[in-house]
Write a structure and sequence with these properties.
Strand content of chain B: 25-35%
Number of strands of chain A: 15
Number of domains of chain A: 1
Largest sheet of chain B: 9 strands, mixed
Radius of gyration of chain B: 22 Å
CATH topology of the largest domain in chain B: Rossmann fold
Structural class of chain A: alpha/beta
Number of helices of chain A: 6
Number of helices of chain B: 8
Distance between the termini of chain A: 61 Å
Strand content of chain A: 25-35%
Oligomer: heterodimer
Number of strands of chain B: 15
Radius of gyration of chain A: 21 Å
Strand order of the largest sheet of chain B: 7-6-5-8-4-1-2-3-9
Shape of chain A: globular
CATH class of the largest domain in chain B: Alpha Beta
Largest interface: A-B, 87 and 99 residues
CATH architecture of chain A: 3-Layer(aba) Sandwich
Order of helices and strands of chain A: EEEEEHEHEHEHEEEEHEEEH
CATH architecture of the largest domain in chain B: 3-Layer(aba) Sandwich
Order of helices and strands of chain B: EHEHEHEHEEEEEEEHEHEHEEH
CATH topology of chain A: Rossmann fold
Bound molecules: flavin-adenine dinucleotide
Number of domains of chain B: 2
């Protein structure tokens, strides 16, 4: 084993604490003040990135790439924090990161960028991503990338990857009812779409940040534009259905009475 | 319009509930569109499973069974699903959004030149065209959309349609041959594993979801931690109410940060923006603030109540039907006692 080439696909999503409001733009649906919304690295792909780093540290000779498709200026902002987490080489693609874009177009752009990485060795290739984005939340992009790269082994909702010295590995994938499907695979190449994994978010490390930034700026400069949009999707409407409930706040009432009311409700 | 209900069997050879729901969806769509629908089944016991829905009104039945598809595996499931879609010549494919199909159908769509959408919450014919609805930005924005291209594969979320029920019969499913390659079996399924937790706490069909928040692990009014007591109260409730257990992110994150917490919970329990969005008729939130990234995890919980010490918690801001301001330790002990 000469180590893995681990390519993580991950982009930006609006910070979950922001209020999102749909608007119609000439390009299709979008978000109000979209360019102004603060963004974070898409949470499940962030877990994939931390797991990639963990694996690269375990298997000597491994290298981590982060392939990110998003508006160049926003990617640059995002890298200010993400680049401090773990070492990687950035491959940037300049295009929309909207949740309303068509996953088929996104997958085509990602697969093209991965194929173009100089020196990438498919026999050592593990492609990581999130099991779904927090924007489109479709959970199809990584399979489409897998097919486009001609890879036959794909795992979804991955929480654990254990690699044996011979390069074969075992995987735990989330399935129904809080269970895992355990599988073994003969080895790379494979595509793994991660759930949360098992690692905490790494602390910011300014030294890692400085080393990464040397590659990040040139990668952003040469980011190729990708014509990613709503594609073949035709939206009839996007809306936030009225959700507000008339909340009844019960205070200054004893625990006995509250418990009785809750039990009546459960049984009712 | 040719519609296909593409289904798979579960371990025991039966169709999962989510598959029966798709039979209902396909029959409804065919009726609306003035078309017909076929049923295709993949997995162990597929032919017998087709017989179980023989009376559903489908115009044809197809099946792929055998060792290669006895266990879920991307490469073989993808090849089998693609073969079934091609055999049926379907234009619109409805399939359950189970973990098995969520894994393989995007690949099968790619191989058959189809387009694919997931998490479908409704499908209907509007002005002569098939239209689907799904949520974007993790249950925040609801969109309605269509695609002109065919085939179009739609994975339907479970719990949206009522499961089809009816008499079994002889479906005479046509066996579909699949050309599996040697490289399709590089992966071998080793079976199901329960998570490290010592109890089965996630029950998708439970009548009620109990969500535990980080408050259970915080210092209480006596200035002490009561983590053991919290665990006993939560597990007691799960057992007595046959509830499913959800968690806030903060609570399960304590575990990866190495802090003492409830050992029967894992990230699998997490609901919300970066967790799951389960469907249950009722939900009870305890010791949990009800912040927005968490509240989106409740999108599909019909009746919502919360217990919190803080009268101004997020739940009180129009997200729950009732907020009980009180100590969850005290209240849940009494609830458990009343449940007997
Ligand atoms: C990128 C991102 C993604 C996120 N995704 C998710 C997600 O998927 N799911 C999620 O849950 N969160 C998510 N969050 C985190 C979310 O913003 C909140 O931080 C989290 O939900 C808070 O959890 P909590 O309510 O359990 O904890 P806290 O905010 O600590 O609240 C604890 C509550 O317990 C109450 N309490 C304490 N003791 C008692 C008692 N004895 N009786 C009654 N009440 C008591 C307190 O009043 C308090 O309201 C995300 C955040 C970010 C930034």
């Amino acid at each position: 084993m000469n180590g893995f080439h681990i390519v993580v696909c991950g982009s930006l999503v609006p910070d979950p604490l922001q209020t999102l409001e749909p608007v119609t733009t000439p390009q299709g649906p979008g978000l109000k003040n979209e360019t102004m919304l603060p963004s974070v690295l898409d949470p499940w792909s962030a877990h994939a990135l931390y797991e990639a780093d963990h694996l690269a540290k375990q298997v000597a000779g491994s290298k981590v790439y982060l392939v990110s498709l998003g508006p160049k200026a926003k990617l640059q902002q995002l890298m200010m924090t993400v680049a401090q987490k773990v070492p990687f080489e950035l491959v940037a693609i300049d295009g929309s990161a909207s949740g309303f874009t068509d996953a088929h177009l996104v997958a085509a752009a990602l697969a093209e960028a991965i194929t173009a990485i100089p020196g990438l060795d498919k026999s050592r290739l593990l492609v990581f991503g999130g099991c779904a984005s927090a924007s489109r939340d479709a959970g199809v992009t990584m399979q489409l990338v897998c097919e486009r790269l001609g890879i036959r082994d794909f795992f979804s909702g991955v929480d654990e990857l254990k690699v044996a010295p011979d390069g074969s590995f075992s995987v735990l994938e989330r399935v129904e009812g809080g269970q895992y499907l355990a599988s073994t695979c003969q080895g790379a190449p494979a595509v793994l779409a991660w759930a949360t994994g098992n690692l905490p978010e790494p602390r910011n490390n300014p030294q890692v940040g400085m080393a990464n930034m040397r590659g990040v700026m040139p990668a952003l400069m040469k980011a190729k534009p990708a014509a990613v949009g709503v594609g073949a999707l035709s939206y009839a409407k996007t809306e936030i259905p009225a959700q507000k409930r008339a909340t009844r706040v019960v205070k200054d009432v004893g625990a006995d009475e509250i418990a009785r009311e809750i039990v009546a409700w459960i049984k009712g | 319009m040719k519609i296909l209900a593409l289904l798979h069997t579960q371990d025991d050879g039966a169709l999962p509930k989510a598959a029966l729901e798709v039979v209902t969806a396909a029959a409804g769509l065919a009726a609306q569109a003035g078309g017909t629908f076929a049923v295709a089944v993949l997995g162990a016991g597929a032919t017998a499973a087709a017989d179980a829905v023989a009376a559903c009104g489908a115009s044809a039945f197809y099946a792929v069974e055998g060792d290669a598809v006895a266990q879920p595996r991307y490469a073989t499931d993808t090849a089998a699903a693609a073969a079934l879609m091609q055999a049926a010549g379907a234009e619109v494919v409805l399939a359950p959004g189970t973990s098995r199909f969520a894994r393989c159908l995007p690949g099968a769509a790619y191989r058959t030149g189809a387009q694919v959408d997931t998490h479908v919450a409704a499908v209907s014919v509007e002005a002569g065209a098939v239209q689907a609805q799904r949520w974007f930005y993790r249950q925040r924005i609801l969109g309605a959309f269509s695609r002109a291209a065919r085939p179009w594969v739609l994975l339907v979320d479970s719990g949206v349609y009522a499961p089809w029920s009816g008499a079994a019969g002889a479906a005479q499913a046509q066996p579909v041959a699949v050309a599996f390659g040697a490289e399709d079996s590089r992966t071998a399924a080793q079976g199901l594993q329960a998570p490290a937790a010592d109890a089965q706490t996630i029950r998708p069909d439970a009548p009620i979801l109990l969500v535990a928040g980080a408050g259970w692990t915080k210092k209480q009014k006596d200035g002490q931690y009561h983590i053991g007591e919290a665990g006993a109260l939560i597990q007691g409730f799960l057992q007595k109410a046959q509830a499913s257990l959800g968690s806030s992110k903060s609570l399960v994150d304590l575990k990866s940060d190495g802090q003492e917490t409830l050992n029967f919970m894992s990230h699998m329990n997490q609901v919300g923006q970066t967790g799951s969005t389960p469907r249950h008729p009722k939900g009870l939130s305890t010791c949990c603030h009800g912040e927005e990234p968490h509240a989106v995890g409740w999108r599909f919980i019909n009746e919502r109540r919360a217990i919190n010490l803080d009268a101004n918690c997020g739940w009180a801001q129009g997200k729950a039907d009732v907020v009980y301001v009180g100590d969850a330790f005290e209240i849940m002990a009494k609830v458990n006692a009343l449940l007997g």
